[in-house]
């Protein structure tokens, strides 16, 4: 197949069959090599380049071993370290994100390898468990250590006793030491992708919409997805849009599918959603001007502007003291299907998943009901975040009115009893039809003909 959008479209108009055969063959081919590639890729992502080089050239004189997963259990299995960040906003503070048992973890120590000392310097950590734990025994905590004076440690280790041999501990690279420059205006942080996630078409459309709206990067904390979804994630990883962080939390903790504790012996809510959101925020604190915190079935759609850039420029100008912008969530129910009579979408038929362009009816707000919001934040203004609001921050928040934008949340209905006439027609997503269809087609063409 000639790698050109035009050729593919002509091909599709005449006869869809060869395309599907080609697609199926390709999928089969990828299935055989994908697991290995994806594994290598994840490892490569997981081990940042500098870390590899540093360890290769000059192993830290007093450091311990490197983590072998995104989540590292400490020996007593009550504390799980995710990653360590220099917090330049608060003096010499190292903020380590970890999941802890809220009653049983009272004492932790940081081990710093300072300069050329062979012995680590130990300081006692403060433990700040995030307020939103939703009743589960385990929750995200900020493990906060003050870096010793004149110390510029590249790694930090954590233990509940102050007298361990640092070689026997795991050393975490301290990220965000050098703020550097923005490489993105907008980075989207999804909470965990889990449960054989296989809504491939909607995912591709969503990523392409984010790019049209102004995103350069999308972070995926991957617990589990279908084979085809893995291939799509690999495509976008190679393109540079997606960064996959392996997130196998159930190796260590009993996860709940609920956000709130059902008193059923589970240990942490919703696959550790709050941990991934906060980790994503800190990972992108200095590389991204804004961070967008929403799920993979949600798109913040502006009404007054065409892109997030122009919308945020205007919102920031109007609200100079605001760093957290909250957008109303509105349900576009997958039960109300509309056909937009769009051309050039025949290649989508072979792709599993929902087609965003078919859902233009949203449910009205329910009175006396919590209508959720999602956020675009200046990450440097946030200390701790929850799902629908931040918990600790340096700047104000603002609820953005519906006239400006909404969160287009395409999913099953929350009010299934409502007749179609009671739904609100909202064709905003259709106004992006031209570029969306073209970009999705271009992606599918490259994805399928990829050597
Ligand atoms: C369909 O796509 C082709 C190639 O991208 C383009 O030339 C053509 O104008 C499109 N048709 C419509 C109706 O948008
Ligand atoms: C990481 O290393 C520890 C100790 O060496 C081992 O028990 C554990 O299974 C490893 N985890 C993974 C994900 O490889
Ligand atoms: C490092 O620790 C060892 C054993 O705890 C001790 O004997 C040695 O003096 C220490 N070295 C320095 C430079 O503090
Ligand atoms: C540290 O590891 C060594 C082997 O590498 C072991 O002999 C020693 O007992 C360990 N020390 C502690 C305090 O666990
Ligand atoms: C961010 O936005 C500015 C202005 O809107 C633009 O000039 C710049 O290229 C964007 N940065 C990236 C990384 O795309
Ligand atoms: C996802 O879970 C299914 C069922 O448990 C399993 O077969 C599949 O290998 C998992 N995929 C990944 C990427 O972990
Ligand atoms: C995962 O989803 C795909 C696509 O829907 C399906 O073909 C496959 O059987 C599912 N796998 C598991 C382990 O549920
Ligand atoms: C769909 O579009 C075609 C041309 O693109 C037009 O001829 C036809 O009337 C349209 N159908 C509907 C139901 O709008
Ligand atoms: C598709 O987008 C164009 C502008 O990009 C707009 O004129 C047209 O009305 C849109 N189509 C639909 C069905 O909304």
From TrEMBL:
InterPro entries: Glyco_transf_92. Keywords: Glycosyltransferase, Membrane, Transferase, Transmembrane, Transmembrane helix. Its main location: membrane. Its EC number is 2.4.1.-. It is an enzyme of class 2 (transferase). GO terms for molecular function: glycosyltransferase activity. It is found in: Membrane. It is a single-pass membrane protein. Belongs to the glycosyltransferase 92 family. This is Glycosyltransferase family 92 protein.
């Amino acid at each position: 197949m000639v790698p050109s959008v035009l050729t593919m479209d002509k091909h599709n108009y005449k006869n869809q069959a060869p395309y599907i055969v080609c697609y199926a063959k390709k999928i089969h081919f990828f299935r055989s090599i994908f697991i290995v590639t994806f594994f290598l890729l994840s490892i490569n992502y997981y081990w940042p380049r500098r870390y590899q080089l540093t360890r290769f050239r000059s192993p830290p004189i007093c450091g311990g071993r490197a983590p072998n997963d995104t989540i590292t259990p400490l020996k007593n299995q009550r504390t799980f370290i995710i990653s360590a960040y220099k917090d330049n906003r608060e003096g010499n503070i190292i903020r380590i994100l970890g999941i802890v048992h809220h009653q049983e973890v009272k004492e932790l120590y940081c081990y710093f390898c300072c300069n050329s000392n062979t012995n680590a310097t130990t300081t006692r950590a403060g433990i700040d468990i995030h307020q939103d734990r939703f009743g589960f025994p385990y929750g995200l905590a900020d493990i906060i250590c003050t870096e010793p004076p004149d110390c510029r440690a590249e790694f930090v280790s954590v233990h509940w006793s102050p007298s361990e041999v640092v070689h026997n501990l795991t050393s975490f690279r301290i990220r965000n030491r050098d703020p550097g420059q923005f490489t993105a205006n907008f980075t989207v942080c999804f909470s965990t992708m889990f449960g054989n996630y296989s809504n491939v078409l909607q995912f591709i459309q969503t990523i392409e919409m984010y790019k049209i709206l102004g995103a350069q990067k999308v972070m995926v904390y991957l617990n589990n997805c279908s084979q085809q979804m893995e291939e799509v994630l690999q495509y976008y990883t190679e393109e540079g849009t997606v960064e996959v962080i392996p997130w196998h939390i159930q190796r260590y903790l009993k996860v709940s599918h609920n956000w709130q504790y059902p008193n059923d012996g589970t240990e942490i809510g919703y696959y550790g959603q709050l941990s991934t959101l906060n980790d994503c925020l800190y990972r992108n604190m200095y590389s991204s001007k804004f961070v967008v915190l929403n799920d993979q079935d949600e798109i913040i759609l502006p009404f007054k502007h065409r892109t997030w850039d122009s919308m945020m420029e205007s919102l920031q100008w109007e609200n100079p003291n605001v760093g957290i912008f909250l957008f109303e969530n509105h349900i576009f129910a997958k039960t109300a299907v509309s056909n937009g009579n769009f051309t050039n979408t025949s290649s989508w038929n072979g792709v599993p998943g929902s087609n965003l362009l078919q859902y233009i009816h949203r449910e009205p707000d329910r009175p006396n009901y919590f209508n959720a919001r999602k956020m675009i934040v200046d990450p440097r203004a946030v200390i701790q975040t929850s799902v629908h609001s931040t918990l600790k921050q340096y700047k104000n928040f603002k609820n953005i009115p519906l006239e400006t934008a909404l969160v287009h949340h395409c999913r099953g209905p929350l009010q299934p009893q409502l007749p179609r006439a009671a739904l609100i027609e909202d064709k905003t997503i259709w106004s992006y039809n031209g570029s969306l269809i073209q970009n999705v087609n271009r992606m599918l063409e490259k994805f399928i003909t990829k050597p």
